[in-house]
Amino acid sequence: MSAPQTRPRQLSNNQGQRPPAQAAPGQSHQSQAESDYVYFDRSTAGFTSEAVPKAKAAQLKLEHFYKVAVEAAVERNTR
């Protein structure tokens, strides 16, 4: 069985990015950091109908695993 092929998503010039924020006095450093940040357009449009439920199941398993791990760590720390 061969490995599944994935296609990288390509962004156009403005797709997935916020427009630069107007800098208020004293906020030039923060606005520079915001303009460098890239926002991705997340969509399931490119996935098959079989992949979406599998991905959702994997997401739920990971969320449950980390939730249990955090609860156990909090419990250990309170003892």
Please describe what this structure looks like.
47% of the residues lie in helices and 0% in strands. It is built from two helices and no strands. The mean pLDDT is 77.
* Estimated helix fraction: 40-55%
The biggest beta sheet is recorded as: none
Strand-and-helix sequence, N→C? HH
Question: Uncertain segments of ≥5 residues (pLDDT<50)?
Answer: none
Q: How many DSSP E strands? A: 0
Provide a count of the helices: 2
Proportion of residues in extended strands? under 5%
Radius of gyration: 20 Å
Average of pLDDT: 77
Summarize the structure in short:
With 79 residues, the protein is mostly helical.
SSE blueprint and pairings:
Layout: H1 28-36, H2 51-78
Give me some keywords for this one.
mainly alpha; 2 helices
